From TrEMBL:
Superkingdom assignment: Eukaryota
InterPro entries: NAD(P)-bd_dom_sf (IPR036291), SDR_fam (IPR002347)
Pfam families attached to this UniProt entry: adh_short
Record's keyword terms, sorted: Oxidoreductase
Official protein name in the record: WW domain-containing oxidoreductase
GO molecular function: oxidoreductase activity
Amino acid sequence: MRRTFWNFISDQWSKQQPVLKVDLTGKTVLVLGANTGLGFEATKHFATNNPARLILACRSQSKGQAALNKLKTATGYSKAELWIVDLAEFESVKQFADRFERDGGRLDILVENAAVAAPKYEATKDGWEASLEVNYLSTSLFALLLLPAMIKTAQQHSTIPRLVFVSSGAHYEVEIEKNVRENPDMTKTLGSSEYCTKKKMMSRYQLTKLLNLFFARALNDRLLRSTPLIIDAVSPGYCYSELRREFTGILAFIDSLMERLLALTTEEGSRHVVWAALARQEDPDVLRGQYISNCQIQEVSDFILAPEGVKAQDQLWDELVDILGKVDLRVTATVDEYLSSVVA
């Protein structure tokens, strides 16, 4: 599918659906990046559906605590919990998973929302370009480490959990170049300082959202169809967001102008995220592996569906499992126990 600028405008100006309401009594919801923006607005909506537990996974203790206070004031919900995780550090993700294994209990809805839009190359302590690690590698690690908890929840409580990746319509704007796809170490190339030129960093966020979709689709393809777990990805639309707070100069001016003309409110964008997590309760299987935009199933980009995209997806998956398996042996164990080596 190809998206034109007029398609984008049409989506932005279309009437927004009211937020979906589903009774979450007894269930646990975990939102990554929950202290601000889309994550916080989605968390507010989940709170009004009475979950037994609502976990806000945030990087900052002070900002997370402020979010808890705001959430209670806005909704009256008093059972929210703040758990700390820094996606710029693999060790922090591992520690979060350790804690969840000890006392997290069931996990019915996991919304992977956290992301950064880095304007220039900067390496993490793990040696990866920051937005690649935060938006893609650690997000994937987080999902794989918590996947067993979601599957066990399904088995023990006869329910169908949801794993939701917040992606973006920006994925239509990028492809992975042929010379990179032909590299036996595609992921390392994409994360190298040599590749991350100033020009490449201008579309870095779009690339990481493409990689999110590749991961979500690859994970879904390898999950046995009999496994009671729904994996999908959602675009919240172009919204007012702190994600672009580091924009400067002409880029900041253009973005400010576009916001005034086209942007959804952050709350409106969060409705799309909630829809991906709660919709189609009567027939959830229709959402397996799907990309959702404007509260509808949409076709992903032509590049993802093309033979070269399918090949890239499989290669990226193999590389990711190898990279993350060295970070935490539980990744390899999860892949071996719950996923098929043959793509469905």
